[in-house]
Amino acid sequence: MTEVVQGSRPSPSWRNVCLTIGNFDGVHLGHQQLVHELGRMSQRKGTQGVALTFFPHPAEVLTAGRPQRLLPLEDRIRMLLSVGATGAWVLPFDRKLSSLSAERFVEDVLLSRSAISGLVVGPDFRFGANREGDSALLAWFGERKGFEVSVVPPLEVDGMRVSSSFIRRLLMEGKVADATRMLGRTYRVKGTVVRGKQVGTSLGFPTANLCLSDDVLVPANGIYVIRMRIGRTPSESTPLDGVANVGHRPTLDNGPLQVEAHLFGIERPLYGEVVTLEFLERIRDERRFGTLEELRAAIRQDVERARRYFGRQ
Predict the structure, then answer these.
(1) Which domain holds residue 74?
(2) Does any domain span residue 225?
């Protein structure tokens, strides 16, 4: 039975568990590799495998920065459980926690609160005040405190090391297909369909306009092949193929950032529906056209290219 705990103390049933620790933003293939090793270790020891993550992101507390997330917290937890963790512990990150020395972190968090029997981390894992502890120090503590430490080597895809920061960079460059290969899934954002200005309809390509509901990274401005899923979770949703524009609509009004999707084979309005937008491939940059007719012709070409992507004629 899976458990999720959000608070400074883990579940009382989590005694002598195995843990893996990280921010796990995106739950990409590298993170999944950690969870798979966690599963092997916990099965060997006959205990549970729990993923410990932090909220808010440490950077928000320590630098007042706010990294653009790849997944909202609830989806991060759901995905950690779906790839093999038997529990998820969301530990509040604050100044007090950040000031703990490496030794105090091991004693107060890993041993006193959860009495771990094993720990799985990546090679770049750092812990304690000023990031003073590393995987080598963790192994040293493990030998003296009686818990096993497994350091999982980094994962590479297409010769590049998989990391949340690199995936963010790919998305900010619009390279959604490359990001997909590192995530092990398509990149997606959630939102609610709201009423727009009906400009797409007047051009012959009605769109679903999204009000994004999550504080997550939106890929670079441009035109994308997409799949939209209607429903609160992707697994319980109806998929629809289409093409989407991310940007400021420079030909029309050059207004605030908008995400709008033209869907194939659906006529009914979707106002109020909660949807997930999956980015499959980037078609082109957003650009300003001289006339609405030129814009209409470009949209027609975008739609044709997206239809070919899905094998539609």
Answers:
(1) 3-157
(2) yes
**Residue range 6-18, pLDDT digits in tens:** 998 989 888 899 9
pLDDT value for 63? 78
Cα distances (Å, whole numbers) of residue 61 to 71, 166, 243, 283: 19, 22, 38, 38
Same domain? For 141 and 236 the reply is no
Answer whether 89's CB lies under 8 Å from 52's CB.
yes
List C-alpha distances in Å: 309 to 173, 248, 281, 285, 312. 21, 25, 9, 18, 7
Q: Is the predicted pLDDT of residue 2 greater than 90, yes or no?
A: no
Determine contact, residues 264/241, Cβ cutoff 8 Å: yes
Instruction: Indicate the burial class of 42 (C-beta count within 10 angstroms; 0-12, 13-18, 19 or more).
Output: buried
pLDDT score of 67 more than 90: no
Tell me the CATH number at 276: 2.40.30.30
Domain count, the chain: 2
Q: Give Cα 212 distance to the centre of its chain.
A: 15
**Cβ contact 125:138 at 8 Å:** yes
Q: How many CA atoms lie within 13 A of 172 on its CB side?
A: 12
Among 108, 142, 157, which residue terminates a domain? 157
Q: How many Å apart are CA 179 and CA 289, to the nearest integer?
A: 29
Q: Are 303 and 205 in contact (CB under 8 A)?
A: yes
Give, rounded to a whole angstrom, the gap between the first and last alpha carbons of the chain: 47
> Mean pLDDT across the stretch 66-90?
92
Of all residues in the chain, the percent with pLDDT exceeding 70 is: 96
